[in-house]
Amino acid sequence: MKNHIKTLPGAPPIRGSGILKTTKALLVAATFTASLGAGAAFAGPDDRSDLRIAMPTTWASHGPTVNSNFAARVAYSLYDTLVWRNYLSNADGSGAELVPGLATSWEQVSPTEWDFTIRQGVKFHDGTTMTTSDVAFSINNTYGDGSEPFAASGTIASVVAVDDNIVRITTKNPDPALLARMATVMGQVYPQAYYESVGQEEFGRVPVGTGPYSWGGRVAGESVRLDAFDDYWGDKPPLHSITFLEVPEVSSRLAGLLTGEYDIVTSLPPDQTRPIDKDDATEIRSVAVENVHMITFRQYKTDRPQADKRIRKAMALSLNRALLADKLWAGLTVAGTYDFAGYGDYAMPERGALPFDPEEAKRLLAEAGYDGEEIVIRVVGGYYTNMTRAMEVGLEMWKEVGLNVKLDIIENWGQMGQEGDAYAASDNMWMTDPGGGMWFSWGREGGHRLKDWGGTPPDEFLALGTAIEQGSDFDTRQQAYSDLLDLWDDLVPAILLYRPVEAYGVRKNLSWTPYTFFYMDFRASNVMDMSKM
Predict the structure, then answer these.
(1) Torsions phi, psi for 400 (to 5 deg)
(2) In the list 183, 265, 323, 338, which could disulfide-bond 505, CB 3.0-4.6 Å?
(3) CB-CB contact of 332 with 501 (8 Å)
(4) Which domain holds residue 71?
């Protein structure tokens, strides 16, 4: 089938509103969206704003497959993907529509072969012109030097430049999620010559892509800066520069927004936003993101309590996650699962999360012969909004059923190591298909949670995930997905806490809409500084 989807000439699709809390400023913002999409921008670079964003941390590397939440906020402006996910094709910002990006169209030429027609005249930040060879290299390279495959690339057999216009992707088996893959970091394109000349590590420190903003530099522990790339193939970047500042304390981020030092602040606990609610110049824009906070068990430590699935399940059943979600997130979210609305017709919201059942938890602990041995959970302090608070409440809930749980608060991810019995983490939907999320992280070759199994998932988990990935019809794939969710609830590799809410504090006269992911989009179709009007 041939896909020719209409989009604006030379630009990603127009985006609409995607927030939970609508404000007067956002209604005004909608008025400007159409003109932005048609190519309007500010009068010139001298009139454009230098945007300042405060968030809890910055990341050292911004290579093409970076997947940390805070690095992803930056990288979204550095790279474009072959296929583009239009987040705001749904009114709530969770849109899953896939439209052309660096590929203008695509055609499935056999069950395992897809031809992508590549956009011409696209410039990299280093001034070179993107070629089909760059596209093929980027997707083949997948992660570092290609020796450690990235999870999204698990179905890719080969990628070749057929000619100056066409790139052919051949998969190992029919892959119903290939287009969704190409809308993730798997579909990001970067210059082969530069990457090979500097190597993986240096590329991560000074990345080059095709996005609307180029790398401006990083000051370790302080900030990351991006500058407008005025040779961008789409509409001219509407901001002169974007600086992401590392401000760990919530109070400091709030104070900086209220005094005008920052234009946007991220990662605000919803119950700490009162100063902004009372301020005439700023407001909160909140969105539940396609992510789940969780406590991940180190199952491979076979001499520890968490190696027994009954103890893992008892810890999940004795934690009132619905209460935590309601109280910590101001009623804006619910207890977490690995099922996301972005999966479209595959989604199963009626299933819900594991229930709160402390009596069953006690029974499982007795059956397992648990004798009160200490279970240590490591938490990076301040990294995940509300995580420390959630675990402090959790300690009391676990104590009620006889569990002896201890928190080990550490300063950064560099200290995480393999100590402890479990650790606080999160996981994303990753792509608009049930082959993303759980299977993406816990099953596919290259999945970043494989280590927590001890390297290899159970055979049944592998079989069901493979059926999702390779299934040729909807019913087969949906049944495998349902069975995999059941298996997860039986094995409990991690306690899924809740879908977090990202509460941004934003200057009111900045027209900008958050997405249901951690990406922050500052392309011309999604941002305007109305103070410049």
Answers:
(1) -60, -30
(2) 265
(3) yes
(4) 2-284+502-532
